[in-house]
Write a structure and sequence with these properties.
This protein has helices at 2-22, 27-77, 115-118, 183-186, 199-203; strands at 79-83, 87-91, 97-112, 123-139, 143-150, 157-165, 171-178, 208-217, 221-228, 247-262, 265-279, 287-292, 301-323, 326-339, 364-375, 382-384, 387-389, 406-417, 446-459, 462-474, 484-495. The protein is of the alpha+beta class.
Length: 496
Amino acid sequence: MIGGLKTSGRYLLASASVIGILAHAAPEARAQDLKSIQSQIDALQATIKDLQRQVQDAKAQAAAAQTAAASSSGSDLDLKVKWKGAPELSSKNGKFKFKVRGRINADYDGINQDTFTTGVPDVSATELRRARLGVEGVVFYDWKYILEVDFANDNAAIKDAYIQYTGWPVYLTIGNFKTPNTLDNLTSANYITFMERAAFIEAFTLDRAIGVGLSYLSPHWTASAGIFGEAPGAAPLFSGFTGDENVTFASRVTAAPINREVNGVNQVLHLGASVRTRDVGNDQPLLQYRARGANLHLANFFVNTNRIADGDTFWGLELAGVWGPLAMQAEYGQTEVEVFQGAFARSTAFPPGPNPLRGQPDPTYEGWYVESSWFLTGESKSYKDGVFQRVKVKNPATFKNGGWGAWQLAGRYDVVNLGDDAFGCPLTIALYPGTSGADQAPMCGEQATWQIALNWYLNDYTRLMFDYGESHISGQLDYNAGANIKGFGMRAQVDW
């Protein structure tokens, strides 16, 4: 088309030259030729207008093609990106979502374990308490999934691994997840106030297992229940044995008559209760109850029943409150133990002999704690779905923009009692050979721990933690009675 315009230009120049020549010709011939030339010029002008119209049409078509190409490219990507600690990718209609998740907890523990009384050495050591990596997402609006593996200390262990249907008012969850028990257990380790949870959470083994559960969640009350088997990697007692596994039933209800934000201040009153029953399968080790000194992960167990039970029933009560920067939390838990009463050890693979637990009465163990915390910088604990959530830092600490982050002071008094005078706390070496030393000795006592903590939240996803605690061991059935365990812990934490 552009070539056509150039050709028309040459015609016009030629016509102008002809006109100039004819201007010197005879008047009669000039008049006739002028008429002929005028008709040619009119024809050329019509051609030029037609060519201009074609060029304009071509430009319009090119613009339409570019718009269509851009629109087609956008529909293929259909991508929306949002930052939530890490990039969260989703389709624009919310049909699909995908996010990489994880956390790192790097710890140091220094613990005076009262060697003179307990006979175990002191601790000064570091560890990767958690080093998790996983994914989470949504498929077709209503199907949520999470898979997370912990690689701490070079040991791979599956943590959350489940699918959840959220299209009903009651959510359906299938996979490996926490049994619905206690506020401290269900609050993520990313958000708990102290480096470790209360002692009775570990002592009564409140943790994850493979199962199916139903849950209803609302701002002011929740209800959850489920049936569970074993956790991934739980080895049977004997290699190659494929008998029955553990069976666990658990349920929890919570109420939050106050759950609101007034002038930017969170106000929460939380009440809760939960129950759990366990029956040990015939290919699984018996149940054990124990807790670490000073509530630090690298400490030894100074209250420890060894493996004694083929079933138990736990129940617990919860109370918590938040009023702006002040938060308080308390729980009580009790476990009624069913001592193994078989006549002999559970397999002929063990040395022959009577069961040292036979004839022992069923003990009852308990644990409780109270804790309180205060944000010096004015932040507040967040609460949703019956548990505490991520703290929102008002002024993140950065070199570029300044800011102090969030500073939190906390204190806790924590008791776990694994002593029951009716239960003789016999040695269980006949049931589980291969243990020696302190593992054979009776340690069915009580541990009382007080702790203080200072937490510095640099931003919503990063914090430094400093804990100090002392545990006092008592009880006639614990050879560690009279010991005082003192420990200091530090943690650098980031999650995404």
